[in-house]
Structures are given as C-alpha cells and as structure tokens.
Amino acid sequence: MSTTKEGAAGNRLLIKVTRDTLPQVKDKYPFIYLERGRLEIDDSSVKWIDCDNNVVRLPIATINCLLLGPGTTITHEAVKVMGASNCSVCWVGEDSLLFYAAGINPTADSRNLRKQMLLAADSDKSVEVARKMFARRFPTADLVGKNLKEMMGMEGYRVRQLYEQKVEQYQVGWKGRSYQPGKFEMGDITNRVLTSANAALYGILCSAVHSMGYSPHIGFIHSGSPLPFIYDLADLYKEELCIDLAFFLTLEMAGRYNHHKVSSTFRKRVIEMDLLTRVGPDIEEMLGGGKPRACRHRK
Asked: What is the pTM of this model?
C-alpha cells in the first residue's frame, strides 16, 4: 500500500489505503485450485501458465488462498509477491481433497496471535474458550462447572448419536469411523468422503486463520496434533458440512467412489452455508469478542 500527498497544493496523486478499504476474507475469492502449470512474475503481476501454455494473470490481492495441486511449480519472486499481498499458499493433493502443507505469510500485526497465546496460556480462560465452542454444539446443555474432559466425553457421545441418526436418515451401512494415514483407499466410501471433506475443510480454515493473524498451532480443545486450533474450529462445522455430506454421497454414489462428485458437492455446500463469511465472526466470538478483523494489515 502507498500513501502520499502532493506538495503544497495538497492534490493527492494516490488514494490512501486504510484497513476498511482492504479486502476482507469474506470479500475475497476463498481459494483457487491450480494443477500442472507454473506460477511466475511478469510486469509485477502473478501469472499462471498451464500445461497447454495458456496464460492467466491472477488478481492475487483479491484471492485468499492458492491451492497448488500436482504438477505445479512456483518461482521465488511469485512467493514474495503473494506474501506481500496476504495470499496464502497451500500444497494439496489432486482436486484439493488432501492437505499437505501451508506457507505462512509474514505478519506485520501480531495482536490476534498475542491474544490467542494469552488465552491458551491461562488454564481458566482456555477452558472458557473451549466451553464456548462446546456450547455452540450443545445449545441447551448446562456446561457451567464442567471441565474439559467431561465436555469432550459429551462430544464423543453426541457424535456417535449423530452417526446413528445419519445412518437412519440415509439408510446406509456404517461400521464406525476409521482412518489409517496413507491407506485412504482401504476405507469404505463413507469414511473416504469424510476424510476428503475434513481435509478440504482444514485447508479452508487454515487459510482463514492465517489470514486473520492467528496460529493454527495453538488450540483450546485439541492438543498434541499438527493443527489443534484448526481441529477445534472444524468441529463447529463438521456436522453441517462433512458428516451429512459423507452419508448423503454414500447413498448417491451407490458403491463407486467418485472424487469429482465429492469435490463438486463439497464446494457447493461450502457456498450454500456461506462458510467464509461465518469463520471470522465465529473466531472472534470464541476468543472473546472485539470488532471482527478479517484481514491483517501493515502499518
């Protein structure tokens, strides 16, 4: 961003960019998936050259996250420009249904990160944040005085009931949740859809959390895992998005797993539930209010 004033005459050549004029997470394209091509810089813009030599210039400042699939290469200069534009990069599997890694943007404002760390470091405040997250899933339950272990027990029971309810609703077989890392093909269709949908949800939430200046590594319910805060947040949306989708598609696909159908149906549901608009205010609500900040800014 640039600011300047035109000498004594006071005529402004460039418009001052303020926090309010910056695109927020909800206003940006949530993500673009790319595969089999190259990202590089040309005349200060990031361009995508696909495997057929077609060139597409990307409006990086209006994109929240680029998902780089198989066969992609990216130049050092392109990464530099994307970092300055607050556009995250995630490396994913084919059709973005597996999440491998994320590039972390440099942050010029660590206010949200400091707030998150202070809450996590205080045992009482940390449990209070966890209680807010559980309260979202148990709107009628009395959670006052319950510790984290008791609330996690309630959650486990609720999820098992939810699986049974979906089995009854869609009339499909279900032998329980099973996921073996590296053995995706070994799972039944319901478990494979669940794994794919969860991975895609984690990718979206990683992008949003990074963009808001929080850390995916500091959680309040989950711990000892690579992305505990992402798993905390994902539980707010899994019932509505991933679990129902898995049983619905198990019925629809009738015994033949179709990853294109999983991908397209997942994207449709993300748009229908307006996920990107909800994530920012939800995080602010869980971590203790304040005016939602959907995008980091430079001072």
From this structure: 0.72
Distances (CA, A) of 98 to 177, 181, 199, 235: 18, 11, 5, 18
Cα gap 199→194, rounded to integer Å: 8
- Which residue type sits at 212? M
Q: Cα separations (Å) of 73 from 76, 140, 206?
A: 10, 50, 21
Cβ atoms of 117 and 129 closer than 8 Å: no
User: For residue 79, what are the contacts with CB-CB under 8 A and spacing of at least 6?
Assistant: 89, 103
- Total length of the chain: 299
When computed from its CA atoms, the radius of gyration of the chain, rounded to whole angstroms, is 21
The whole-angstrom separation of Cα 257 and Cα 107 is 41
Separation between Cα atoms, residue 116 and residue 284, nearest integer Å: 10
Q: What is the spatial distance between Cα 230 and Cα 215, in angstroms, rounded to a whole number?
A: 9
Six token digits for residue 12: 């402004």
The DSSP letter of residue 171 is T
User: What tens digit of pLDDT does each residue of 28-64 get?
Assistant: 676 688 899 999 998 768 999 999 999 999 988 888 7
- Specify the DSSP class assigned to residue 34: E
- The pair of structure tokens assigned to 172 is 């499909």
What does DSSP assign to residue 29? B
Cβ 210 vs Cβ 194: under 8 Å: no
Q: What is the pLDDT of residues 60-73, one digit of tens each?
A: 888 877 888 899 99
